[in-house]
């Protein structure tokens, strides 16, 4: 059925705007429970019955208000509309279908422009030994009570965040290997795994870029998201890699997301100098100080339109080799 602005709206047109599960999607499909890459977990708007029944002002305003609330969260600009009153001719408004499509696309993309997002406290801290060489590999996970909760969290702009720090070597001062690791950590910045894409807040170093992958692209085996490799200095093969997976073969069935973070020092010449015979060289010059991989989440909030949000049910350190 064609939607002509100015026509009196009947229940068939209204119900399509509210409940269509095929493109152009209705409000309930992208804002309610949804399926696939859609859904925010908001309360469904009721459909109406009665054949050629005309729609009331209250019903029409309910849809407009709900759309505005989602747009406030996604930071989309919708067509300007004023509320209608009882007794008015309840006519189809211009661009309702286009505005619904805009909101649906924002939700399916993971609400990347949402600003009602808050960083959690540190959920897991996975530190290496006092000092290490070889590699430090950490697996950390977040769990949801259901797949709906997982999808609603990431669709609303939620993210899984990795932050890495390095502390003292254990010797007299930071070594050149410490400095190389620090440069990789700075180039990574905050790593965020989102619904459809991933990001790093840092810049620099040589990047193998698969940041177009988000949770929706993952499977039960690890997908490489990025590799940062030293682009200058002595340790140009030193690298930092981030991979991710889910506990099912498809985003629409998963309840657990796991990130594996690996810092690798492939230098084969590692060795510890004998204390007292270092000739002013740091005893641990071939080692890297303690590295700590911290897990956070970026949590959607109700500050800008959403009536409710979902959250994780738990987190875990799956493994931590502690540096070898």
Write a structural description.
The chain is an alpha+beta fold and 324 residues long. It has 2 domains: 98 residues, no CATH class; 203 residues, no CATH class. It is 21% helix and 25% strand. The strands form 3 sheets. Strands 1, 2, 5, 6, 7 and 13 form a 6-stranded antiparallel β-sheet that branches. A 6-stranded antiparallel β-sheet has the order 8-9-10-11-4-14, with helices on one face. A two-stranded antiparallel sheet has the order 3-12. A hairpin with a 4-residue loop joins strand 6 and strand 7. Helix 3 packs parallel to helix 4. The protein is elongated. The model has no long low-confidence stretch (mean pLDDT 89).
Write the layout of secondary structure elements.
Elements: H1 11-19, H2 27-31, H3 57-74, H4 96-108, E1 117-119, E2 124-127, E3 131-132, E4 134-143, H5 147-155, E5 159-166, H6 176-188, E6 191-193, E7 198-200, E8 206-209, E9 223-229, E10 239-246, E11 256-265, E12 288-289, E13 291-300, E14 314-320
Antiparallel strand pairs: 1-13, 2-13, 3-12, 4-11, 4-14, 5-6, 5-13, 6-7, 8-9, 9-10, 10-11
Helix pairs in contact: 3-4
Mean pLDDT: 89
Rg: 25 Å
Order of helices and strands: HHHHEEEEHEHEEEEEEEEE
- Total beta strands: 14
N-to-C span: 66 Å
Main β-sheet, in a few words? 6 strands, antiparallel
Total helices: the number is 6
How does the helix and strand content classify structurally?
alpha+beta
Q: What's the structural domain tally?
A: 2
What is the share of helical residues? Answer: 10-25%
The low-confidence runs, each spanning 5 or more residues with pLDDT under 50, are none
Percentage of residues in strands: 25-35%
Shape descriptor reads: elongated
